[in-house]
């Protein structure tokens, strides 16, 4: 028996076509036969929702869960069969499904967007440096993955 204990996004990334719910270690866990398994990002680490059809795009992806030395592989297709998974996923994606308001073409607005993007990049760099200073390998790995997805 499969039940969701917790499903929270590490972050949500969006573009014109997809909403991507990115998952990390402490944010996704399942009960499998009454034993708690934690998500580990070995294979897939995101759920991709098509904005137009409102359907999960990557149903054939596999998520990996671990309890001690035991590892269980669960497909997104299997998770979609769980009503509570869909409820959690829906509550995460609803704010991102609304139609986007057309942004003004004002040059000052574009400059402001560029400044904010630079600040976000610098903040991520500082968080990575802090993880290094604290010898926090897990945080370093997760933040480096975000860096690689965003800036490489």
Quick summary of this structure?
The protein is of the alpha+beta class and 152 residues long. The chain contains 4 helices and 8 strands. It has helices spanning 76-80, 83-97, 107-133, 137-151; strands spanning 2-7, 11-14, 18-22, 28-32, 35-40, 46-50, 62-67, 70-75.
Main β-sheet: number of strands, strand sense, barrel status? 5 strands, antiparallel
Q: What is the C-alpha radius of gyration, as a whole number of Å? A: 18 Å
Going across the biggest sheet, name each strand in turn: 1-4-5-7-8
What string, H for helix and E for strand, traces the elements in order? EEEEEEEEHHHH
Please state the structural category. Answer: alpha+beta
Beta-strand content bin: 25-35%
Beginning-to-end CA distance, first to last residue: 40 Å
Total helices: the number is 4
- Say how many strands there are: 8
The chain-level mean pLDDT equals 86
Q: In percent, how helical is the residue content?
A: 40-55%
Q: What shape does the CA trace take?
A: flat
The low-confidence runs, each spanning 5 or more residues with pLDDT under 50, are: none
